[in-house]
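Design request, tokens follow.
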């Protein structure tokens, strides 16, 4: 396709995807690259090589990916004519990543691309494989000369990054022996979401919010990331993980950092990451003996959701029938610094919940003096900013208004910015599109630095350790289709608040 868009494409790049035959590649990575191709964001000189032990010829691999794009791409209707051109960039390399001998095939491919492109491309190794394989692959890649070329070689590491603080530190140590920090891209796909990136725009491109973005005006903050799906075939992975490791250590703490961080001086990657890591370091460490007062865990039982019978977590494939793994977690955090002292940050996440919704709520304090008669309103705390990340994509500012009529009756109303109304073309790139483009461009702003991963593990480790030391006696403790265990309601009700949810979107 010709480059009719007015933007610079990234330099020549070759992406080797370990896990080319796997789920992430077909569900997210290839659809993302295809969309970048359609939007003319791929480099002029580009190649993607899928790697795996499964046997594929290039053509059968492309056929497999074609079906995946048909199923998973947000632009599945745009395959005719374009797919053929895109698929010319795609090839497959059958190899066992545990066999050092086979790595020469990668060097040969890189050489062939150099000749084809007439220049040395960026060489990107995307490790879309089980976490246990990551250290081994990283080490074996390290033995290739190309990895020492800090100008152009990058490695992308998927989550989970380590299983706990110790293993994450070991992995960071290992990677640091082979790569410079700016060659390492630890991916957290939430950071690639449009609505998440917009938090920085909302906070730091407007003069309006910053003066009130602190403990003087904000009563509390809530972050909910609820999913209606259960673990659905990922029991093997989830049994080693649970909600805290799967969602809180990474995605939710990153959202919290974006709400909590100080204003950056520039958008340079390390500046943003410095500001975020400051927040992580300031989060009060929950003492093991106090975990019960600050954190709640849950596991879904069997039951019914939307008139369909659903399995309980313990009945899922590859799950221990007596599993103590949590599919729900709620935690109250505090950030000990000048901006946030004593402002609670309530976070919760769970599977098999009532509604798919990721929202951040900033609840402002009540007006200092209330001049209206008491009967004018039933809430004195009307000011609230709600950032809906998905599936709705909007920002709502709630304030008190006078209801038309002869009496002074007040009720809360919402001023709403909706992405779909404001940007009618409706082509928000998916997170992986943004992040893959960032890797090709060498922009690590939205990726985790080693110290961020480390600091995030330090925040959750006391909870993990306390929970592992004291197996739950009440699991399963919430019904699918609910909002989680009752104790999660109690966690926030003790402070006189409720979890905020928005009405489910109206479906035509
Ligand atoms: N799937 C998803 O939606 C998401 C996944 N992730 C993360 O991405 C990573 C991959 O997940 P997913 O794609 O679901 O996993 P899959 O099990 O679907 O894929 C694993 C891949 O690893 C390859 N592999 C395994 N052993 C070897 C080996 N010795 N040599 C070469 N290739 C090997 C497999 O290929 P073969 O069998 O052909 O050798 C396969 O392509 C995980 O870390 C996961 O946590 C993160 C977010 C979402
Ligand atoms: O990383 C993960 O995220 C997904 C949720 O991602 P989303 O973009 O659909 O919100 C979650 O289902 C999965 O368990 C977790 O590993």
């Amino acid at each position: 396709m010709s480059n009719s868009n007015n933007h610079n494409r990234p330099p020549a790049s070759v992406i080797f995807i370990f896990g080319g035959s796997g789920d992430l590649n077909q569900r997210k990575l290839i659809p993302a690259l295809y969309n970048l191709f359609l939007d003319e964001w791929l480099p002029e000189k580009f190649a993607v090589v899928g790697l795996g032990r499964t046997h594929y010829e290039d053509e059968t691999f492309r056929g497999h990916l074609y079906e995946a794009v048909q199923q998973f791409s947000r632009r599945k209707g745009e395959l005719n004519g374009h797919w053929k051109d895109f698929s010319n960039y795609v090839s497959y390399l059958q190899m066992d990543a545990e066999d050092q001998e086979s790595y020469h095939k990668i060097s040969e491919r890189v050489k062939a691309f150099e000749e084809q492109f007439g220049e040395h491309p960026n060489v990107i190794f995307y490790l879309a494989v089980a976490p246990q394989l990551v250290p081994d692959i990283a080490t074996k890649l390290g033995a290739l000369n190309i990895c020492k070329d800090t100008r152009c070689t990058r490695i992308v590491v998927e989550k989970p990054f380590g299983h706990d603080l110790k293993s994450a530190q070991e992995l960071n140590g290992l990677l640091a022996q082979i790569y410079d920090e700016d060659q390492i891209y630890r991916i957290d796909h939430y950071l690639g979401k449009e609505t998440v990136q917009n938090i920085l725009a909302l906070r730091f491109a407007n003069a309006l919010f910053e003066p009130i973005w602190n403990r003087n005006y904000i009563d509390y903050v809530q972050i909910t990331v609820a999913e209606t799906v259960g673990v659905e075939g990922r029991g093997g992975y989830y049994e080693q993980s649970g909600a805290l490791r799967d969602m809180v250590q990474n995605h939710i703490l990153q959202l919290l950092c974006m709400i909590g961080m100080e204003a950056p001086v520039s958008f340079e990657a390390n500046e943003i990451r410095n500001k975020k890591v400051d927040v992580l370091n300031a989060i009060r460490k929950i003492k093991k003996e106090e975990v019960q007062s600050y954190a709640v865990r849950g596991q879904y039982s069997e039951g019914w959701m939307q008139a369909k019978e659903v399995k309980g977590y313990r009945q899922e494939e590859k799950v221990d029938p007596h599993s103590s793994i949590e599919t729900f977690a709620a935690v109250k955090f505090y950030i000990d610094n000048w901006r946030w002292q004593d402002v609670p940050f309530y976070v919760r996440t769970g599977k098999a919940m009532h509604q798919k919704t990721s929202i951040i709520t900033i609840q402002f304090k009540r007006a200092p003096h209330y001049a209206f008669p008491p009967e004018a309103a039933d809430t004195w705390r009307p000011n609230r900013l709600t950032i809906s990340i998905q599936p709705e994509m909007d920002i709502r500012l709630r304030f008190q208004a006078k209801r038309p009529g002869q009496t002074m009756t007040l009720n809360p109303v919402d001023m709403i910015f909706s992405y779909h109304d404001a940007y009618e073309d409706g082509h928000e790139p998916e997170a992986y599109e943004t992040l893959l483009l960032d890797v090709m461009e060498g922009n690590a702003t939205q990726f985790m630095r080693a110290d961020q991963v480390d600091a995030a593990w330090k925040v959750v480790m006391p909870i993990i350790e306390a929970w592992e030391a004291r197996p739950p006696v009440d699991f399963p403790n919430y019904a699918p289709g609910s909002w989680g265990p009752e104790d999660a309601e109690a966690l926030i009700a003790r402070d006189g608040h409720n979890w905020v949810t928005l009405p489910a979107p109206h479906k035509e």
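Comment from the thread starter after seeing the answer: thanks! Residues 159, 227, 246 surround LXAUTJHC (ligand 2) (CB under 6 Å).
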